[in-house]
């Protein structure tokens, strides 16, 4: 399982001209699911995203400016977007190979469980729409982007 996370000032997902998910300050997380991923992997990924310290501490004089706080500590939002292309093999050729991505039906179920777990763990969670053509808009804050992996 892979996640591309971005610290954002604002992010939203639109499908067919309708906003289906939106957050203000927080984390936009694109989630890629692989063949062998399980609910246990999904839970570990959500825990890692929620605990990942990518926000600056602006109140503690000794830690000012350090990436010392996580999204929970700043009360930010979490926007989860399924993104099978993160699982692409790109080492050879000029076309991505998606053979490592979980098949769509299984991925839909696991992504739904991941979202359910995230919402149980944290109150400010929004999502895109699985399998839809989504327009994702974001204002990256920093910019700060990180790739997280769970095996």
From TrEMBL:
Enzyme class, spelled out: hydrolase
EC number from the UniProt entry: 3.1.1.96, 3.1.1.-
Gene: dtd
This protein's UniProt keywords: Cytoplasm, Hydrolase, RNA-binding, tRNA-binding
Domain remark text: A Gly-cisPro motif from one monomer fits into the active site of the other monomer to allow specific chiral rejection of L-amino acids.
Motif (Gly-cisPro motif, important for rejection of L-amino acids): 142-143
Keyword Cytoplasm carried by entry: yes
Entry keyword annotation includes Manganese: no
InterPro entries documented for this protein: Daa-tRNA_deacyls_DTD (IPR003732), DTD-like_sf (IPR023509)
Protein name, as recorded: D-aminoacyl-tRNA deacylase
SUPFAM superfamilies, per database record: DTD-like
Gene3D superfamilies in UniProt: D-tyrosyl-tRNA(Tyr) deacylase
NCBIfam families for this protein: D-aminoacyl-tRNA deacylase
Domain of life: Bacteria
Reaction(s) this enzyme catalyzes, per UniProt: glycyl-tRNA(Ala) + H2O = tRNA(Ala) + glycine + H(+); a D-aminoacyl-tRNA + H2O = a tRNA + a D-alpha-amino acid + H(+)
Family, similarity comment: Belongs to the DTD family.
Quaternary organization: Homodimer.
HAMAP family in UniProt: Deacylase_Dtd
Organism this protein belongs to: Psychrobacter aestuarii
Function: An aminoacyl-tRNA editing enzyme that deacylates mischarged D-aminoacyl-tRNAs. Also deacylates mischarged glycyl-tRNA(Ala), protecting cells against glycine mischarging by AlaRS. Acts via tRNA-based rather than protein-based catalysis; rejects L-amino acids rather than detecting D-amino acids in the active site. By recycling D-aminoacyl-tRNA to D-amino acids and free tRNA molecules, this enzyme counteracts the toxicity associated with the formation of D-aminoacyl-tRNA entities in vivo and helps enforce protein L-homochirality.
Compartment(s) where it occurs, according to its Swiss-Prot or TrEMBL record: Cytoplasm
């Amino acid at each position: 399982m892979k996640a591309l996370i971005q610290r954002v000032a604002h992010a939203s997902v639109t499908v067919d001209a309708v906003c289906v998910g939106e957050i203000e300050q927080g984390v936009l997380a694109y989630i890629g699911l692989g063949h062998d991923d399980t609910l246990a992997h999904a839970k570990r990924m959500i825990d890692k995203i929620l605990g990942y310290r990518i926000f600056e501490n602006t109140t503690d004089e000794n830690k000012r400016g350090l990436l010392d706080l996580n999204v929970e500590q700043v009360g930010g939002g979490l926007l989860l977007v399924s993104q099978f292309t993160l699982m692409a093999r790109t080492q050879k050729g000029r076309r991505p190979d998606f053979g490592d991505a979980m098949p769509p039906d299984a991925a839909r179920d696991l992504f739904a469980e991941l979202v359910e777990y995230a919402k149980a763990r944290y109150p400010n969670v929004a999502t895109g729409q699985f399998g839809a053509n989504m327009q994702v808009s974001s204002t990256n804050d920093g910019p700060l982007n990180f790739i997280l992996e769970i095996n």
